[in-house]
Automatic annotation (TrEMBL):
This is 3-phosphoshikimate 1-carboxyvinyltransferase. One of its GO terms (biological process) is chorismate biosynthetic process. Catalyzes the transfer of the enolpyruvyl moiety of phosphoenolpyruvate (PEP) to the 5-hydroxyl of shikimate-3-phosphate (S3P) to produce enolpyruvyl shikimate-3-phosphate and inorganic phosphate. InterPro entries: Enolpyruvate_Tfrase_dom, Enolpyruvate_Tfrase_sf, EPSP_synthase, EPSP_synthase_CS, RNA3'P_cycl/enolpyr_Trfase_a/b. Its main location: cytoplasm. GO terms for molecular function: 3-phosphoshikimate 1-carboxyvinyltransferase activity. Pfam families: EPSP_synthase (PF00275). The gene is aroA. 3-phosphoshikimate binds at K32, S33, R37, S174, Q176, D324, K351. It comes from Edaphobacter modestus.
Protein backbone atom coordinates (compact mmCIF):
# COMPACT_ATOMS: atom_id res chain seq x y z
CA UNK A 1 0.00 0.00 0.00
CA UNK A 2 1.32 3.45 -0.90
CA UNK A 3 0.78 6.86 0.72
CA UNK A 4 -2.76 7.99 1.63
CA UNK A 5 -2.31 11.19 -0.40
CA UNK A 6 -1.36 11.01 -4.07
CA UNK A 7 1.42 13.31 -5.23
CA UNK A 8 0.95 16.41 -7.45
CA UNK A 9 3.29 17.56 -10.26
CA UNK A 10 5.93 20.28 -9.74
CA UNK A 11 4.67 23.89 -10.05
CA UNK A 12 5.28 25.75 -13.31
CA UNK A 13 4.65 29.38 -14.23
CA UNK A 14 3.23 30.73 -17.46
CA UNK A 15 3.52 34.34 -18.65
CA UNK A 16 0.44 35.65 -20.47
CA UNK A 17 0.85 38.92 -22.43
CA UNK A 18 -2.03 41.21 -23.40
CA UNK A 19 -3.57 40.51 -26.81
CA UNK A 20 -5.26 42.83 -29.30
CA UNK A 21 -7.74 40.29 -30.66
CA UNK A 22 -8.87 36.66 -30.40
CA UNK A 23 -9.52 34.74 -33.57
CA UNK A 24 -9.52 31.27 -35.04
CA UNK A 25 -11.10 27.92 -35.15
CA UNK A 26 -10.65 25.27 -32.46
CA UNK A 27 -11.79 21.79 -31.46
CA UNK A 28 -11.62 21.44 -27.69
CA UNK A 29 -10.81 18.01 -26.20
CA UNK A 30 -13.51 15.54 -25.20
CA UNK A 31 -15.82 16.37 -22.33
CA UNK A 32 -14.44 15.48 -18.90
CA UNK A 33 -17.83 14.67 -17.32
CA UNK A 34 -18.89 12.38 -20.17
CA UNK A 35 -15.46 10.69 -20.38
CA UNK A 36 -15.65 9.77 -16.67
CA UNK A 37 -19.12 8.28 -17.07
CA UNK A 38 -18.33 6.32 -20.24
CA UNK A 39 -15.13 4.96 -18.67
CA UNK A 40 -16.93 3.86 -15.51
CA UNK A 41 -19.91 2.25 -17.21
CA UNK A 42 -17.63 0.59 -19.78
CA UNK A 43 -15.68 -0.96 -16.91
CA UNK A 44 -18.87 -2.45 -15.48
CA UNK A 45 -20.37 -3.51 -18.83
CA UNK A 46 -19.92 -6.72 -20.74
CA UNK A 47 -17.80 -6.42 -23.89
CA UNK A 48 -15.36 -3.89 -25.32
CA UNK A 49 -16.40 -0.25 -25.42
CA UNK A 50 -14.69 1.87 -28.09
CA UNK A 51 -14.50 5.58 -27.33
CA UNK A 52 -13.10 8.28 -29.56
CA UNK A 53 -12.19 11.83 -28.55
CA UNK A 54 -11.78 10.73 -24.92
CA UNK A 55 -10.78 13.63 -22.64
CA UNK A 56 -7.07 14.42 -22.58
CA UNK A 57 -7.43 15.78 -19.03
CA UNK A 58 -5.66 14.03 -16.18
CA UNK A 59 -8.91 13.48 -14.23
CA UNK A 60 -10.64 11.04 -16.62
CA UNK A 61 -7.32 9.20 -16.92
CA UNK A 62 -7.41 8.76 -13.13
CA UNK A 63 -10.80 7.13 -13.68
CA UNK A 64 -9.34 4.82 -16.36
CA UNK A 65 -6.55 3.75 -13.96
CA UNK A 66 -9.14 2.97 -11.30
CA UNK A 67 -11.10 0.89 -13.81
CA UNK A 68 -7.95 -1.11 -14.57
CA UNK A 69 -7.40 -1.69 -10.85
CA UNK A 70 -10.99 -3.00 -10.72
CA UNK A 71 -10.30 -5.56 -13.45
CA UNK A 72 -11.22 -3.76 -16.70
CA UNK A 73 -8.72 -3.82 -19.58
CA UNK A 74 -7.87 -0.41 -20.97
CA UNK A 75 -5.95 0.39 -24.15
CA UNK A 76 -5.21 3.93 -25.33
CA UNK A 77 -4.20 5.17 -28.76
CA UNK A 78 -4.15 8.97 -28.61
CA UNK A 79 -7.69 9.99 -27.74
CA UNK A 80 -9.11 6.61 -28.80
CA UNK A 81 -9.73 4.47 -25.73
CA UNK A 82 -10.96 0.89 -25.52
CA UNK A 83 -12.28 -0.53 -22.28
CA UNK A 84 -13.08 -4.21 -21.93
CA UNK A 85 -15.48 -4.43 -19.04
CA UNK A 86 -15.80 -6.84 -16.13
CA UNK A 87 -19.34 -7.97 -17.04
CA UNK A 88 -20.67 -6.77 -13.71
CA UNK A 89 -17.98 -8.29 -11.48
CA UNK A 90 -15.30 -5.89 -10.29
CA UNK A 91 -12.28 -7.55 -8.74
CA UNK A 92 -10.74 -6.81 -5.35
CA UNK A 93 -8.06 -4.18 -6.17
CA UNK A 94 -4.59 -4.96 -4.87
CA UNK A 95 -3.91 -1.34 -3.92
CA UNK A 96 -5.79 1.92 -3.26
CA UNK A 97 -7.90 3.45 -6.02
CA UNK A 98 -6.03 6.70 -6.68
CA UNK A 99 -8.50 9.39 -7.77
CA UNK A 100 -5.79 12.07 -8.07
CA UNK A 101 -7.42 15.52 -8.16
CA UNK A 102 -10.80 14.28 -9.32
CA UNK A 103 -13.90 14.74 -7.18
CA UNK A 104 -15.96 13.17 -9.96
CA UNK A 105 -13.88 9.98 -9.85
CA UNK A 106 -14.10 9.56 -6.10
CA UNK A 107 -17.79 10.34 -5.71
CA UNK A 108 -19.27 8.66 -8.77
CA UNK A 109 -17.03 5.59 -8.54
CA UNK A 110 -18.06 5.13 -4.90
CA UNK A 111 -21.63 4.47 -6.08
CA UNK A 112 -20.46 2.15 -8.83
CA UNK A 113 -18.29 -0.06 -6.62
CA UNK A 114 -20.26 -0.06 -3.36
CA UNK A 115 -22.52 -2.99 -4.47
CA UNK A 116 -19.47 -5.26 -5.02
CA UNK A 117 -18.38 -7.63 -2.22
CA UNK A 118 -14.85 -6.23 -1.71
CA UNK A 119 -13.04 -3.64 0.35
CA UNK A 120 -12.02 -0.57 -1.63
CA UNK A 121 -9.86 2.30 -0.40
CA UNK A 122 -10.00 5.49 -2.41
CA UNK A 123 -7.33 8.16 -2.08
CA UNK A 124 -6.65 11.50 -3.72
CA UNK A 125 -4.24 14.42 -3.76
CA UNK A 126 -4.10 17.13 -1.09
CA UNK A 127 -6.98 19.11 -2.67
CA UNK A 128 -9.26 16.08 -3.07
CA UNK A 129 -8.53 15.04 0.51
CA UNK A 130 -9.98 18.40 1.66
CA UNK A 131 -13.28 17.95 -0.23
CA UNK A 132 -16.51 16.79 1.45
CA UNK A 133 -17.43 13.13 0.94
CA UNK A 134 -20.20 12.85 3.54
CA UNK A 135 -22.62 13.84 0.76
CA UNK A 136 -22.20 10.44 -0.89
CA UNK A 137 -21.70 8.43 2.29
CA UNK A 138 -25.22 9.42 3.40
CA UNK A 139 -27.24 7.92 0.52
CA UNK A 140 -24.89 4.97 0.01
CA UNK A 141 -25.07 4.10 3.73
CA UNK A 142 -28.87 4.32 3.53
CA UNK A 143 -28.61 1.68 0.78
CA UNK A 144 -26.59 -0.53 3.12
CA UNK A 145 -22.96 0.24 2.27
CA UNK A 146 -20.44 0.67 5.08
CA UNK A 147 -18.14 3.59 4.32
CA UNK A 148 -15.29 4.89 6.49
CA UNK A 149 -14.11 8.48 6.09
CA UNK A 150 -11.68 10.55 8.10
CA UNK A 151 -13.71 13.43 9.47
CA UNK A 152 -15.93 13.42 6.37
CA UNK A 153 -13.00 13.25 3.97
CA UNK A 154 -10.83 10.83 1.99
CA UNK A 155 -9.20 8.42 2.36
CA UNK A 156 -12.50 6.60 1.93
CA UNK A 157 -12.85 2.89 2.61
CA UNK A 158 -15.91 1.17 1.21
CA UNK A 159 -16.87 -2.23 2.62
CA UNK A 160 -18.99 -3.23 -0.35
CA UNK A 161 -21.84 -5.74 -0.62
CA UNK A 162 -25.46 -6.12 -1.73
CA UNK A 163 -27.42 -2.85 -1.57
CA UNK A 164 -31.11 -2.03 -1.25
CA UNK A 165 -32.95 0.63 -3.27
CA UNK A 166 -33.77 3.98 -1.65
CA UNK A 167 -35.92 7.05 -2.31
CA UNK A 168 -33.59 10.00 -2.06
CA UNK A 169 -33.97 13.76 -2.33
CA UNK A 170 -30.58 15.36 -3.06
CA UNK A 171 -30.21 18.30 -0.68
CA UNK A 172 -27.35 19.89 -2.65
CA UNK A 173 -27.21 20.56 -6.38
CA UNK A 174 -24.62 17.95 -7.35
CA UNK A 175 -24.53 15.77 -10.44
CA UNK A 176 -21.81 13.71 -8.76
CA UNK A 177 -24.10 12.80 -5.84
CA UNK A 178 -26.98 12.06 -8.22
CA UNK A 179 -24.67 9.84 -10.27
CA UNK A 180 -23.35 7.93 -7.25
CA UNK A 181 -26.97 7.09 -6.29
CA UNK A 182 -27.96 6.12 -9.85
CA UNK A 183 -24.87 3.91 -10.29
CA UNK A 184 -25.53 2.17 -6.98
CA UNK A 185 -29.28 1.95 -7.75
CA UNK A 186 -28.50 0.22 -11.06
CA UNK A 187 -27.01 -2.65 -9.08
CA UNK A 188 -29.25 -2.62 -5.97
CA UNK A 189 -32.27 -4.73 -5.08
CA UNK A 190 -35.47 -2.85 -5.94
CA UNK A 191 -36.10 0.46 -7.70
CA UNK A 192 -34.16 3.51 -6.57
CA UNK A 193 -35.77 6.89 -7.04
CA UNK A 194 -34.26 10.29 -6.66
CA UNK A 195 -35.18 13.93 -7.03
CA UNK A 196 -32.93 16.94 -7.31
CA UNK A 197 -33.55 20.37 -5.81
CA UNK A 198 -31.98 21.86 -8.93
CA UNK A 199 -31.72 19.91 -12.17
CA UNK A 200 -28.00 19.26 -12.75
CA UNK A 201 -26.11 17.95 -15.79
CA UNK A 202 -27.80 14.79 -17.08
CA UNK A 203 -24.87 12.96 -18.71
CA UNK A 204 -25.30 9.96 -16.39
CA UNK A 205 -28.90 9.52 -17.46
CA UNK A 206 -27.89 9.56 -21.15
CA UNK A 207 -24.86 7.34 -20.59
CA UNK A 208 -26.84 4.73 -18.64
CA UNK A 209 -29.37 4.56 -21.46
CA UNK A 210 -26.61 4.33 -24.08
CA UNK A 211 -25.17 1.30 -22.23
CA UNK A 212 -28.62 -0.33 -22.30
CA UNK A 213 -30.09 0.50 -18.89
CA UNK A 214 -33.61 1.78 -18.59
CA UNK A 215 -34.30 4.82 -16.50
CA UNK A 216 -37.49 6.83 -16.15
CA UNK A 217 -38.25 10.42 -15.26
CA UNK A 218 -41.64 11.42 -13.85
CA UNK A 219 -41.65 15.15 -13.27
CA UNK A 220 -38.59 15.80 -11.12
CA UNK A 221 -38.23 12.13 -10.00
CA UNK A 222 -35.77 9.79 -11.64
CA UNK A 223 -36.16 6.03 -11.14
CA UNK A 224 -33.81 3.20 -11.92
CA UNK A 225 -34.51 -0.49 -11.38
CA UNK A 226 -31.73 -2.58 -9.85
CA UNK A 227 -30.23 -5.69 -11.38
CA UNK A 228 -29.80 -4.28 -14.90
CA UNK A 229 -26.85 -5.43 -17.00
CA UNK A 230 -24.86 -3.10 -19.27
CA UNK A 231 -23.56 -3.78 -22.78
CA UNK A 232 -20.48 -2.18 -24.36
CA UNK A 233 -20.95 0.74 -26.77
CA UNK A 234 -19.12 2.69 -29.46
CA UNK A 235 -19.21 6.43 -28.87
CA UNK A 236 -17.56 9.74 -29.61
CA UNK A 237 -17.15 12.09 -26.68
CA UNK A 238 -18.36 15.63 -27.50
CA UNK A 239 -15.98 18.57 -26.98
CA UNK A 240 -15.96 19.95 -23.43
CA UNK A 241 -18.03 23.13 -23.18
CA UNK A 242 -16.44 23.92 -19.80
CA UNK A 243 -13.04 24.01 -21.55
CA UNK A 244 -14.48 25.97 -24.48
CA UNK A 245 -15.84 28.47 -21.91
CA UNK A 246 -12.38 30.02 -21.53
CA UNK A 247 -12.13 30.79 -25.23
CA UNK A 248 -15.78 31.84 -25.49
CA UNK A 249 -15.12 34.41 -22.75
CA UNK A 250 -11.86 35.49 -24.43
CA UNK A 251 -13.79 36.13 -27.65
CA UNK A 252 -16.01 38.59 -25.72
CA UNK A 253 -13.05 40.77 -24.82
CA UNK A 254 -12.24 42.20 -28.27
CA UNK A 255 -14.48 44.06 -30.75
CA UNK A 256 -13.23 42.16 -33.80
CA UNK A 257 -12.85 38.68 -32.33
CA UNK A 258 -14.14 35.69 -34.26
CA UNK A 259 -14.12 32.17 -32.84
CA UNK A 260 -15.44 28.94 -34.35
CA UNK A 261 -15.78 25.87 -32.12
CA UNK A 262 -16.66 22.52 -33.65
CA UNK A 263 -17.69 19.12 -32.25
CA UNK A 264 -18.77 21.00 -29.14
CA UNK A 265 -20.95 19.38 -26.48
CA UNK A 266 -24.11 21.49 -26.22
CA UNK A 267 -26.23 19.35 -23.89
CA UNK A 268 -28.92 21.78 -22.64
CA UNK A 269 -28.00 21.04 -19.00
CA UNK A 270 -24.47 22.24 -19.73
CA UNK A 271 -25.09 25.06 -22.20
CA UNK A 272 -26.36 27.86 -19.92
CA UNK A 273 -23.10 29.68 -20.68
CA UNK A 274 -24.29 30.32 -24.22
CA UNK A 275 -27.31 32.21 -22.84
CA UNK A 276 -25.12 34.25 -20.48
CA UNK A 277 -22.79 35.09 -23.35
CA UNK A 278 -25.76 36.37 -25.35
CA UNK A 279 -26.94 38.41 -22.35
CA UNK A 280 -23.47 39.91 -22.02
CA UNK A 281 -23.41 40.99 -25.65
CA UNK A 282 -21.88 38.07 -27.50
CA UNK A 283 -23.35 36.90 -30.77
CA UNK A 284 -23.59 33.12 -31.18
CA UNK A 285 -24.39 31.51 -34.49
CA UNK A 286 -25.16 27.78 -34.43
CA UNK A 287 -23.69 26.41 -37.67
CA UNK A 288 -24.48 22.73 -37.14
CA UNK A 289 -26.11 20.55 -34.49
CA UNK A 290 -26.66 16.80 -34.14
CA UNK A 291 -27.26 14.20 -31.43
CA UNK A 292 -25.22 11.13 -30.36
CA UNK A 293 -26.21 8.86 -27.50
CA UNK A 294 -28.53 11.56 -26.18
CA UNK A 295 -25.80 14.22 -26.21
CA UNK A 296 -26.10 17.32 -28.41
CA UNK A 297 -23.00 18.16 -30.46
CA UNK A 298 -22.63 21.27 -32.59
CA UNK A 299 -20.48 23.85 -34.32
CA UNK A 300 -20.83 27.47 -33.23
CA UNK A 301 -19.38 30.81 -34.20
CA UNK A 302 -18.96 33.57 -31.63
CA UNK A 303 -18.43 37.30 -32.12
CA UNK A 304 -18.95 40.33 -29.93
CA UNK A 305 -21.76 42.72 -30.71
CA UNK A 306 -20.58 46.22 -31.73
CA UNK A 307 -22.22 47.71 -28.61
CA UNK A 308 -19.69 45.92 -26.40
CA UNK A 309 -20.25 43.98 -23.21
CA UNK A 310 -23.13 44.66 -20.85
CA UNK A 311 -23.47 42.86 -17.50
CA UNK A 312 -25.14 39.78 -16.03
CA UNK A 313 -26.65 38.44 -12.82
CA UNK A 314 -26.10 34.77 -12.12
CA UNK A 315 -28.15 33.46 -9.20
CA UNK A 316 -30.34 30.52 -8.15
CA UNK A 317 -30.45 27.43 -10.38
CA UNK A 318 -28.33 29.19 -13.01
CA UNK A 319 -25.37 29.28 -10.60
CA UNK A 320 -25.56 25.49 -10.18
CA UNK A 321 -25.79 24.96 -13.93
CA UNK A 322 -22.78 27.22 -14.56
CA UNK A 323 -20.74 26.12 -11.58
CA UNK A 324 -17.53 25.31 -13.51
CA UNK A 325 -17.78 28.42 -15.71
CA UNK A 326 -18.20 30.92 -12.86
CA UNK A 327 -14.46 31.54 -12.28
CA UNK A 328 -13.87 32.67 -15.86
CA UNK A 329 -17.05 34.75 -15.93
CA UNK A 330 -15.92 36.51 -12.74
CA UNK A 331 -12.44 37.00 -14.19
CA UNK A 332 -13.75 38.88 -17.25
CA UNK A 333 -16.39 40.83 -15.29
CA UNK A 334 -14.21 43.98 -14.83
CA UNK A 335 -14.07 44.38 -18.61
CA UNK A 336 -17.88 44.48 -18.93
CA UNK A 337 -19.85 47.72 -18.67
CA UNK A 338 -22.19 46.78 -15.82
CA UNK A 339 -20.25 44.05 -14.03
CA UNK A 340 -21.27 40.53 -13.06
CA UNK A 341 -23.14 39.43 -9.93
CA UNK A 342 -22.66 35.81 -8.84
CA UNK A 343 -24.69 34.55 -5.85
CA UNK A 344 -26.06 31.17 -4.63
CA UNK A 345 -22.73 29.58 -5.55
CA UNK A 346 -21.33 28.53 -2.18
CA UNK A 347 -20.35 25.14 -3.69
CA UNK A 348 -17.51 27.08 -5.36
CA UNK A 349 -15.78 27.25 -2.00
CA UNK A 350 -15.37 23.46 -1.86
CA UNK A 351 -14.07 22.68 -5.33
CA UNK A 352 -10.38 21.97 -6.09
CA UNK A 353 -9.78 25.24 -4.20
CA UNK A 354 -11.94 27.87 -2.54
CA UNK A 355 -12.72 29.38 -5.93
CA UNK A 356 -14.54 32.43 -4.52
CA UNK A 357 -11.55 33.36 -2.35
CA UNK A 358 -9.00 32.76 -5.14
CA UNK A 359 -10.97 34.68 -7.76
CA UNK A 360 -11.24 37.59 -5.31
CA UNK A 361 -7.54 37.44 -4.40
CA UNK A 362 -6.33 37.34 -8.01
CA UNK A 363 -8.76 40.00 -9.28
CA UNK A 364 -7.61 42.29 -6.46
CA UNK A 365 -3.95 41.56 -7.34
CA UNK A 366 -4.77 42.76 -10.88
CA UNK A 367 -6.21 45.98 -9.44
CA UNK A 368 -9.95 45.19 -9.46
CA UNK A 369 -12.49 46.26 -6.88
CA UNK A 370 -15.11 43.72 -5.86
CA UNK A 371 -17.29 42.52 -3.00
CA UNK A 372 -16.94 38.96 -1.75
CA UNK A 373 -19.84 37.06 -0.16
CA UNK A 374 -20.01 33.61 1.39
CA UNK A 375 -21.94 32.46 -1.72
CA UNK A 376 -20.45 34.59 -4.48
CA UNK A 377 -19.05 37.88 -5.66
CA UNK A 378 -20.12 41.21 -7.10
CA UNK A 379 -17.54 42.39 -9.60
CA UNK A 380 -18.27 45.90 -10.92
CA UNK A 381 -17.64 46.64 -14.58
CA UNK A 382 -15.62 49.32 -16.32
CA UNK A 383 -12.34 48.51 -14.59
CA UNK A 384 -8.97 48.29 -16.34
CA UNK A 385 -6.78 45.55 -14.85
CA UNK A 386 -2.99 45.43 -14.75
CA UNK A 387 -0.46 42.61 -14.69
CA UNK A 388 0.11 40.68 -11.47
CA UNK A 389 1.47 37.47 -9.96
CA UNK A 390 -1.49 35.07 -10.16
CA UNK A 391 -1.93 32.23 -7.68
CA UNK A 392 -3.76 29.30 -9.28
CA UNK A 393 -3.97 27.49 -5.94
CA UNK A 394 -3.18 24.39 -8.05
CA UNK A 395 -6.71 24.70 -9.44
CA UNK A 396 -7.07 24.20 -13.20
CA UNK A 397 -10.05 26.49 -13.61
CA UNK A 398 -8.38 29.35 -11.70
CA UNK A 399 -5.18 29.05 -13.79
CA UNK A 400 -7.15 29.17 -17.05
CA UNK A 401 -9.64 31.87 -15.92
CA UNK A 402 -6.82 34.29 -15.13
CA UNK A 403 -4.97 33.52 -18.35
CA UNK A 404 -8.12 34.87 -20.05
CA UNK A 405 -8.33 37.95 -17.79
CA UNK A 406 -4.65 38.55 -18.67
CA UNK A 407 -5.46 39.02 -22.37
CA UNK A 408 -7.06 42.42 -21.71
CA UNK A 409 -4.76 43.60 -18.89
CA UNK A 410 -2.45 46.58 -19.41
CA UNK A 411 0.69 44.49 -18.79
CA UNK A 412 1.75 40.85 -18.61
CA UNK A 413 0.56 38.42 -15.95
CA UNK A 414 2.51 35.56 -14.44
CA UNK A 415 0.33 32.53 -13.67
CA UNK A 416 1.85 30.39 -10.91
CA UNK A 417 0.75 26.78 -10.81
CA UNK A 418 -0.17 26.87 -14.52
CA UNK A 419 0.41 23.11 -14.85
CA UNK A 420 -2.93 22.61 -13.09
CA UNK A 421 -4.65 23.28 -16.46
CA UNK A 422 -3.74 19.70 -17.41
CA UNK A 423 -6.34 18.38 -14.98
CA UNK A 424 -9.03 19.13 -17.57
CA UNK A 425 -7.31 20.78 -20.57
CA UNK A 426 -3.59 20.04 -21.15
CA UNK A 427 -3.58 21.83 -24.53
CA UNK A 428 -4.98 25.05 -23.06
CA UNK A 429 -1.87 27.30 -23.16
CA UNK A 430 -0.90 26.13 -26.68
CA UNK A 431 -4.40 26.81 -28.03
CA UNK A 432 -4.49 30.15 -26.18
CA UNK A 433 -1.27 31.24 -27.88
CA UNK A 434 -2.59 30.25 -31.32
CA UNK A 435 -5.90 32.11 -30.89
CA UNK A 436 -4.54 35.29 -29.24
CA UNK A 437 -3.56 37.93 -31.81
CA UNK A 438 -0.84 40.35 -30.70
O1 LIG B 1 -20.91 15.48 -12.58
C1 LIG B 1 -19.90 16.03 -13.01
O2 LIG B 1 -19.24 15.59 -13.99
C2 LIG B 1 -19.46 17.29 -12.36
C3 LIG B 1 -20.32 17.93 -11.50
C4 LIG B 1 -19.98 19.18 -10.81
O3 LIG B 1 -19.63 18.86 -9.48
P1 LIG B 1 -20.72 18.67 -8.31
O4 LIG B 1 -21.49 17.45 -8.57
O5 LIG B 1 -19.91 18.58 -7.05
O6 LIG B 1 -21.55 19.91 -8.37
C5 LIG B 1 -18.82 19.88 -11.47
O7 LIG B 1 -18.35 20.94 -10.67
C6 LIG B 1 -17.69 18.95 -11.81
O8 LIG B 1 -16.68 19.64 -12.51
C7 LIG B 1 -18.14 17.82 -12.70
C1 LIG C 1 -14.96 20.61 -9.77
C2 LIG C 1 -14.39 20.02 -10.81
O1 LIG C 1 -14.15 18.69 -10.95
P1 LIG C 1 -14.18 17.52 -9.87
O2 LIG C 1 -15.27 17.81 -8.89
O3 LIG C 1 -14.36 16.29 -10.65
O4 LIG C 1 -12.81 17.54 -9.20
C3 LIG C 1 -14.02 20.84 -11.99
O5 LIG C 1 -13.60 20.23 -13.00
O6 LIG C 1 -14.11 22.07 -11.98
Amino acid sequence: MSSIISQPNASTTQVVRPARSFQGSVTVPGDKSISHRYAMLAGLAEGTTRLSNFSTGADPHSTLSCMEALGAKVTKDGTAVEVTGTAGAFQQPTSELDCGNSGSTMRMLAGLIAPHPHTFTMIGDHSLTMRPMERIRKPLSAMGARIDLVDGHAPMTIHGGPLKAIDFDTPIPSAQVKTAVLFAGLQAEGTTSLSEAVRTRDHSEHALKAFGASLTRTGERLSIAGGQKLKAIEATVPGDISSAAFFLCAALLFPDSNLVLDSLGMNPTRAALLDVITTLGGKIKVLMVEEHNGETIGTIQVNRSPEGLKGAEITGALSAQLIDELPVLAAIAPYTRDGIVIRDAKELRIKESDRIALVAKNLKAMGAELTEFEDGLIVPGNQQLHGAEIDSGSDHRIAMAFAIAALRASSENVIHGAEAAAISFPEFFTFLEDLSKR
